[in-house]
Amino acid sequence: MLPGRGPDGRAAVTRLSRLLGARTAWTAVGDGEFFCPGCGGDRNYQRLTGQRRFALLGVPLLPRGTTGPVVECAACRRHFGTDVLDHPTTTRFSAMLRDAVQTVALAVLAAGGACARGPLETAVAAVRAAGFDDCTQERLAALVEALAADTGRFTGEPCAAGLAIELHEALDPLAPHLAAAGRESIFLQGARIALADGPYTPAERDTLSTVGAALTICATDVTRLLTMARTPS
Ligand SMILES: [Zn+2]
Predict the structure, then answer these.
(1) How far is the CA of 87 from the centre of ligand 1 (A)?
(2) What residue segments make up the domains of the chain, in order of their start?
(3) Tens-place pLDDT, residues 83-123
(4) Domain Co-chaperone DjlA N-terminal spans what residues (predicted)?
(5) Beta strands per DSSP E along the chain
């Protein structure tokens, strides 16, 4: 007979569910660091798969299939879908941002040819603000040399495919995690480096188009931002 309504009925249901319930036995299948949306910070996690079982008086009975996988935060113990791992940790995110700004700066400097003082100064300021506190003009100039050698000066095609690959490698993983304003800000920093020694050269425009594409900024917005960078903010 089904338990009736009212206080007695509710108590019966509670007793029943205590006697007979589905239990999940979790097994750790991996771990790492993630950004926990539950307690809001970089935390360790365990990746768990579960075996669902019926339990009588807390004793597991028949297997009821697998469940999960889930991600369990080591700090708050909450469970999340594995899609939380798609979001970078705060540490990883800052590193990606720093690398992105530096790569854009190097690409624009390389496109500008010889490293003139103005663009180098602007680039150093941008790279330092992005988190490379020890960035110097000498260091950036050396990196530009290395980049140019690496990405095509030897094949006689500077700023072509090799540079585009570098830019995509640095910007593609970052772009999905940035709001439009954040992506535009990285682009504008590149544009201001290019403008520090006069109007955009065709090579600088090319490079900035690649930067825009890698940041998933559409061509219309790239044009708007190229103009915007020319007016001091
Ligand atoms: Zn947490």
Answers:
(1) 14
(2) 21-86, 90-230
(3) 999 999 999 999 999 999 999 999 999 888 766 889 999 99
(4) 129-224
(5) 20-36, 41-56, 59-73, 79-81
